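your task:
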Amino acid sequence: MKNSPQNVAYEYIRNQIVTKMIFPGNRISDEEVMQETGVSRTSIRAALMRLNYEGFVDMIPNRGAFVAKPNPEDLQQIFAIRKVLEIGAFQEAVEKRSGAHLQRMEKNLQDQAKLLESYSRLEYVWLNREFHWIIVEACGNTYYEKYLNEIYNKINTYMIFYDSSVDNDSMASHRMIYEGLKTGDVELGIRGIREDNRIALVDMRTSGMDV
């Protein structure tokens, strides 16, 4: 159920993370969540397990739940596997995509372009995720969906906290991916994916973190 105690706890914790109320590496207090939401510890633990599965939270035995925090090696590895999975998903999506997928992607690009007029990093993070997720949906492979969902959630958290960009410098690579999907040009789409991943990794800026 949408308003179940587990979902209430999940939405509260997730919102605390994406609005920067809890920072990466910080422990998530069961007591605080109980006080703020009124739900049981059991429901909170279930919500934390879901957030762990989705990549927002790291569960450390005998220590508790912490907001996911990257280090340079984490970032390099997660972007390396993201690139491999995105290329595979794109290749399948080229064969299976529908007109509805292309229309949604075109609308997303239009929204990204409008965002340049009044840039919001948080809004871009969600538009960027939606753009890439359309490809995942189009490929129709539940395993790409499972693993890229976790990767995108982790990357979104990192982008919200650590990316210092003040505009969308991925428009050109996104258009390459879109045109590749639209025309069936796999090589063009893969070039766009490689460039998009390169830009995202370069843009990631953390205090004292050399990525």
Notes: The mean pLDDT is 89.
